[in-house]
Amino acid sequence: MEAKSGDSLTKIALITGVTGQDGTYLSKLLLDKGYVVHGIQRASSSTRTESKNESIKNINYHFHFCDMTDYSKIIRILQEALPDEIYNLAAQSNVQTSFDRPEYTAEINALGTLRLLEAIRTLGLEKKTKFFQASTGELFGNSLETPQNENTPFNPLNPYAVSKLYAFWICVNYREAYDMFVCNGILFNHESPIRPDNFVTRKVTKAVVKIKEGLQDKLYLGNLNAKRDWGFAGDYVEAMWLMLQKDQPDDYVIATGETHSVKDLVEFAFREVGIDIEWEGKGLDKKGRNASTGEILIEVDLQFYRPIESSLFVGDPSKAKEKLGWVPRTNFYELVKMMVKNDLEFAKY
Ligand code: NAP
Ligand code: G4F
Questions:
Q1: What sections of the chain are H helices per DSSP?
Q2: Does residue 174 carry a catalytic annotation?
Q3: CA of 36 to the centre of ligand 1 (A)
Q4: Nearest 5 degrees, angle CA 59-CA 62-CA 64?
């Protein structure tokens, strides 16, 4: 099957996972750059409604209902959109959920990626369409190297990371076997005020605001000692775009190069609302008190622990800086401030 492309100076992008955090930021970025954007969303989209992504009101935005399991629909959408760039952001993206739903996670994250690559080939778009894959720092798992860069061996520690490992390598394989323009962005944690509540940053900032407002008593968390490299999603979608503007496809670590513990995150978020936290106890008995009132505000709950996880992630974004000119503009403290501020504003309504 060969698809015919129209002659147009306007670039056409297709985004899977457009209702997600990154899809929301990326669709805005591309529309602002003058792209025509096609977004794929599930008919049953649960986490966000159309109204949350302002981009859909733009005249240059076209949305398509499709599930990443539906190969024939993917083919039809690609045939209609004839994209110059595809950003594959759709995923079951929650690590904890992947232990509960390993098969579904593999179906969407691994085979969903394969379906898109195969659709490009089937339609004869290999030379027209550039492809971005949202890979993850989770590929490194319990790495012996710190910080992790593009040459650090992979050692995934959960079903999500294993599904993303397949996606990473099938992208490399299609790039090498079929000379396709395919890039992996090895993205470390990136957050924002529109991050869903089942990720730790948003869970913490929302709870901090509710506790401050007297709407919640305590915050229950899992591993407080885990260290993550947290950046701002708005910065990370720029890196995705930059990768597809190069002449040659490649893989890049996208990270801040700094790491902070969940405990640091909790302390800093509480400090933003004027509460200092004092810690006592160890392991599952660790508790965080309001230093002024003595009230216990944070406790550990085993249900939020994972069967296995890496205690330390920190990425080395030197290659992205050198080759793409990309640097993160938002540091950890600015990010947490931004999220707390947003949640405080929402609490007013
Ligand atoms: P997110 O907010 O969880 O968004 C995931 C998107 O995928 C949502 O739009 C979701 O749709 C869609 N989706 C899920 N299952 C689908 C299916 N079966 N068919 C079609 N669409 C489906 O994730 P994100 O934070 O924006 O991350 C974007 C990508 O980057 C993901 O691939 C993620 O794994 C990867 N990544 C993220 C980070 C991070 O820290 N944010 C780091 C490394 C890699 P619904 O709205 O219908 O649920
Ligand atoms: O916010 P998290 O759930 O994100 P996680 O597992 O690091 O995964 C995110 O980043 C990956 C890139 O590194 C992405 F590939 C992936 O798609 C996703 O976006 O957990 C962060 C840390 C973990 O160490 C977790 O054990 O926070 C710890 N944690 C402690 N208590 C908690 C909790 N995580 C959650 N979600 N909920 C808790 O109560």
A1: 21-32, 71-81, 95-100, 102-106, 112-122, 159-178, 200-212, 233-245, 262-272, 318-319, 332-347
A2: no
A3: 21
A4: 160
Instruction: Please state, in angstroms and rounded to a whole number, the distance separating the CA atoms of residues 53 and 252.
Output: 27
**Tokens linked to 214:** 């007297």
Instruction: Tell me, using a 6 A CB cutoff, whether residue 90 lines ligand 1.
Output: yes
330 is catalytic: no
Which atom of ligand 2 lies at the shortest distance from residue 191's CA? 19
What is the largest distance, in Å, between two alpha-carbon atoms of the chain? 70
Beta-carbon contacts of 168 under 8 Å, excluding residues fewer than 6 positions away, are 133, 135, 139, 154, 184, 186, 251
228 alpha carbon to ligand 1 midpoint, in Å? 19
Q: What is the pLDDT of residues 294-342, one digit of tens each?
A: 999 999 999 999 999 998 999 999 999 999 999 999 999 999 999 999 9
Note if 122 is an active site residue: no
The model scores a pTM over 0.90: yes
